[in-house]
C-alpha cells in the first residue's frame, strides 16, 4: 500500500497505514459474506489498493481548508469515505447507504477503526432531503459515480453549505457534468491514480449573494 501511494505522490504515516490496513482486512473479510465490492479482495492487488485506498488518499490532499463535516452518498463498502476521513484529522463523517447489510458493515468499520463522530444513515439520500437539520450542514460532499445528472446534483447540493464543495470521483477523464445549474459551479479537476485514469471533479456551491445591499 505504501509503495502504491508513493507512486501516486502520497506518503502514508505509520498510524494511518495501520488503520488503512485494518479497514482493508475488515472489508475483505466481510466481502466474502456480502457483496460490498465487485473486486476480489482475497489478495491485495495493485488495482484494489489503488481504487479503495490510494484514490481517497490523493483526493484528501484537496480537502477544503478548515472542513469539519463531510457527507458521503452511497457509501457502499466505505471507499472513498473511510480512507478519506482517516487521512483528514478532525473530519466528522456521515455515510449514507440505502442497503441495510452494507450499513451494518459501515457501522462496524467505524467502530473498529475508532472513528470518533462517524455516523451511518440507512436511507436513500432523497429521503433525507426532508430533514432540515441536514440542509447546508456539511463543508464537503463526496460521491463516487461515473455520471451524475444535473437533477441529482441539484438535490445533493442541498446538503452542502454555501461555499462548500462537492467531490465527484470519476473513473475516466472528464470535467464537470454536462450542465450545472446555479448555485453549483465547476472549480477544478485533479488526476487521482494514473493507472486507473481516475479523476476528481471538484464543484463549489457559490455563497448566497444578499441583493438587498
Q: What layout of secondary structure does this protein have?
A:
Layout: H1 2-7, H2 14-31, H3 46-60, E1 69-73, H4 81-87, E2 92-97, H5 100-112, E3 119-122, H6 125-128, E4 138-144, H7 150-156, E5 160-170, E6 184-191, E7 199-205
Parallel strand pairs: 1-2, 1-4, 2-3, 4-5
Antiparallel strand pairs: 5-7, 6-7
Helix pairs in contact: 2-4, 3-4
Description of the structure:
This protein has about 210 residues and is α/β, with parallel strands linked by helices. The chain has a single domain (about 1-205), classed as Vaccinia Virus protein VP39 (Rossmann fold). It has 7 helices and 7 strands, in the order H-H-H-E-H-E-H-E-H-E-H-E-E-E. A 7-stranded mixed sheet has the order 3-2-1-4-5-7-6. The radius of gyration is 17 Å and the shape is globular. The N and C termini lie far apart (about 55 Å).
Question: Keywords for this structure?
Answer:
seven-stranded mixed β-sheet; alpha/beta; 33% helix; 213 residues; 7 helices; 23% strand; Rossmann fold
How do the SSEs run, as a string of H and E?
HHHEHEHEHEHEEE
Rg over alpha carbons: 17 Å
Number of domains: 1
Q: How would you write the strand order of the largest sheet?
A: 3-2-1-4-5-7-6
**Biggest sheet layout:** 7 strands, mixed
Question: Summarize this, please?
Answer:
The chain is of the alpha/beta class. It has seven helices and seven strands; from the N terminus they run H-H-H-E-H-E-H-E-H-E-H-E-E-E. The model has no long low-confidence stretch (mean pLDDT 93).
Amino acid at each position: 500500500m505504501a509503495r502504491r501511494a508513493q507512486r501516486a505522490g502520497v506518503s502514508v504515516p505509520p498510524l494511518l497505514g495501520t488503520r488503512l490496513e485494518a479497514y482493508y482486512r475488515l472489508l475483505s473479510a466481510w466481502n466474502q459474506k456480502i457483496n460490498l465490492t465487485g473486486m476480489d479482495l482475497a489478495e491485495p492487488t495493485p488495482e484494489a489498493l489503488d481504487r479503495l485506498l490510494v484514490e481517497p488518499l490523493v483526493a484528501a490532499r484537496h480537502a477544503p481548508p478548515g472542513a469539519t463535516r463531510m457527507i458521503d452518498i452511497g457509501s457502499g463498502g466505505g471507499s472513498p469515505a473511510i480512507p478519506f476521513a482517516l487521512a483528514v484529522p478532525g473530519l466528522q463523517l456521515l455515510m449514507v447507504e440505502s442497503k441495510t447489510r452494507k450499513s451494518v458493515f459501515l457501522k462496524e468499520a467505524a467502530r473498529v477503526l475508532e472513528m470518533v463522530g462517524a455516523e451511518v444513515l440507512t436511507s436513500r439520500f432523497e429521503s433525507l432531503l426532508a430533514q432540515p437539520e441536514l440542509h447546508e450542514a456539511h463543508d464537503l460532499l463526496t460521491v463516487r459515480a461515473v455520471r451524475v445528472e444535473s437533477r441529482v446534483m441539484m438535490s445533493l447540493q442541498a446538503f452542502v453549505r454555501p461555499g462548500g464543495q462537492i467531490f465527484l470521483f470519476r473513473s475516466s477523464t472528464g470535467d464537470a457534468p454536462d450542465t450545472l445549474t446555479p448555485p453549483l459551479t465547476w472549480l477544478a479537476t485533479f488526476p487521482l491514480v494514473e493507472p486507473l485514469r481516475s479523476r476528481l471533479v471538484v464543484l463549489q456551491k457559490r455563497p448566497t449573494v444578499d441583493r438587498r445591499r
